[in-house]
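In response to reviewer comment 3 from the previous cycle, which asked for concrete evidence that the modeling workflow produces usable outputs, we include below a single protein chain processed end to end. The sequence was submitted unchanged, and the resulting structure tokens are shown without manual editing.
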Amino acid sequence: MANSSNGNYAIKADKLSVYYGEFRAVREVDLGIEPRRITAIIGPSGCGKSTVLRALKSLCELIPSVHTEGKVVFGGRNIYELDVDPVEVRRRIGMVFQKPNPFPKSIYENVAWGARINGFKGDMDELVESTLKSAALWDEVHDKLDQSGTSLSGGQQQRLCIARAIAVKPDIILMDEPCSALDPIATLRIEELMHDLAKDYTIIIVTHNMQQAARVSDFTAFFSLSEDGKRAGTLMEYGETKHMFTRPEKKITEDYITGRFG
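The workflow returned the following structure tokens.
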């Protein structure tokens, strides 16, 4: 499906496969992510959505039994080349997980920690304030920065985790079901925040929520299990969200979006 791309991708998977031991969990994914746009990854449970997200950040290699094939091109380089520093890749590609996981530190230190270990030499107070403002959290916490991040509500904790991710100035933010543990009001705040952040960052979100994907994303990638009996996660269709949700090219995409399976 045409996606109005000019080919200047923020990150691109090229024949990306991910194996858990001998089992191929994700098969030959070709996916170019548009810069400063929100891309949703959707599909039924077990189709490799979160695995793809982790592969884009070079996290799969942290698990001894997992290995990848193919390429992930970011900044003009395949991040899996031996001379590419995975720590630098992980700094430039932030990640927010399904369950809010603030450090057991103060709100201030949750934001400052990553910048500090990455050698930030500027005004830390200014960085913490500007980052919390970017994460739409400053007004709620500015008078209690010394309190533990774990004392916040679930939605506030997730915004703190987003602040922690953007404090080190990444290029891309990955979000793995960031609202699944939140109530509708907190979810709305995160979705509004995503739209604001997309002005400066490329965002990729895994979500099971079709309404959320339709609301927040510019592009949608639909994954499902291959139909050859090998049950590998496969990219079935990718394109602009408005087209995917109204005129999908494949029946399997339409069936999933309309709730006929998954």
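The chain has a mean pLDDT of 93. We consider this sufficient to address the reviewer's concern, and the full set will be provided in the supplementary archive.
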